[in-house]
Amino acid sequence: MKVKICGIRDLETALYAKEIGTDFIGFVFAKSKRQITAEQAGKIAAGVSEGPLKVGVFVNETLREIEAIAEQSSLDMIQLHGDEPPQFARQLALPVIKAFSFQKGARLSDMLSYPADFILLDSPVGPYRGGNGTSFDWTLLQNETFDRSRLILAGGLNKDNAAEAIDIVQPFAVDVSSGVETNGVKDQEKMKQFIQTAKGVTKR
């Protein structure tokens, strides 16, 4: 099971994420309590060097700004978390993760048709586009037939529910942010426990 830890804001946390086997680290450039600058992300990326893939999270940003930040931050992937149309994603040179808020009544087929390398399903929109620490009903996906090798599951995950979520949804990867924090700050023990739990689940 691949794991993405999002909302990384400092080199120490990024290096620890690398040490425990995190596959992707996320830098949030959109308005958020975890927002960082391209300069900050670039320094973290340089310090981590080889290791987790570096994902930049954007919400309704311009193509030019994304490209500039991607270069300065040495990003490997772009995560679109806003209302970006399919044509926008097709113009990006880097691999794309497209995030959607998922809830009962949502048209999964429409989400899966989006031209992205990965589709991230998150909880319904809260104060921010993602990172709100709430989950959706995973059983809504249980009996759906689709290519789960493109699916990243997010929204309210933590060490206590990750195994159940993975067992029900069978995603390619899971994405966590607030679930590995204490008082809004990344907690190394929670990060380690989450990684151990997620990577310990045997996929069907």
TrEMBL record:
Keywords annotated in UniProt: Amino-acid biosynthesis, Aromatic amino acid biosynthesis, Isomerase, Tryptophan biosynthesis
Pathway as given in its UniProt record: Amino-acid biosynthesis; L-tryptophan biosynthesis; L-tryptophan from chorismate: step 3/5
SUPFAM superfamilies in UniProt: Ribulose-phoshate binding barrel
EC identifiers of the protein: 5.3.1.24
Catalytic reactions on record: N-(5-phospho-beta-D-ribosyl)anthranilate = 1-(2-carboxyphenylamino)-1-deoxy-D-ribulose 5-phosphate
Family stated for the protein in its record: Belongs to the TrpF family.
Protein name: N-(5'-phosphoribosyl)anthranilate isomerase
Organism of provenance: Bacillus lumedeiriae
